[in-house]
Amino acid sequence: MKSLLLALAIVVTASSPVVATQSPDRVIVQFASDSDEVPAASLAELARFARAHPDRDFSIEGHAILSESDNSPNYAIGLSHRRANRVRAAIWNDDFERWQLSRSRTMIVSAYGASRPLAGAAPTDGRNRRVEVMITESATGR
After folding, report:
1. 3-state secondary structure labels for all residues of the chain
2. Fewer beta carbons under 10 A from the terminal one: N or C of the chain?
3. Is the pTM of this model over 0.70?
């Protein structure tokens, strides 16, 4: 599966969600420390993103940092998986409300824990508490 480069970014700080720049092929949702709760501002951006790409499949990648509650890699993997699944559920719920499942969107969820920090960011940098949603090219070429 080939990921297309996208550029929609949602930047949310732990205290106050802020929606940053928007690009056509990627959404980045930031999370509060030790939380899998999708910020309200991000829910609206995720809905806009999904609606802008109704016939596209998504790759949803969860990330975390080691210093969140428990400093173990297993905890970070679990937290990043919960975050990615919460984002997937938000997109699925929006799809369901609009189409009553008239179209099946494939969403592949991956969890990386702290193993893939942002380029130039320390592994404990809060920007690594994120989920990235990217458009993927399916086998059918949608």
Report:
1. CEECCCCCCCEECCCCEECCCCCCCEEEEECCCCCCCCCHHHHHHHHHHHHHCCCCEEEEEECCCCCCCCCCHHHHHHHHHHHHHHHHHHHHHHHHHHHCCCCCCCEEEEECCCCCCCCCCCCCCHHHCEEEEEEEECCCCC
2. N
3. yes
| Cα 41 to Cα 28, 86, 97, 142, distances in angstroms | 12, 14, 19, 28
In 10 A of CB 51, how many CB atoms? 12
The pLDDT, as a whole number, for residue 22 is 52
Q: Cβ(4)–Cβ(18) under 8 Å?
A: no
Strand partners, 28: 132
**Side chain identity at residue 115, one-letter code:** S
Domains, in order of start, for the chain = 2-137 (3.30.1330.60)
Look at residue 39 in the predicted model and tell me its pLDDT: 94
| 18's tokens | 């802020």
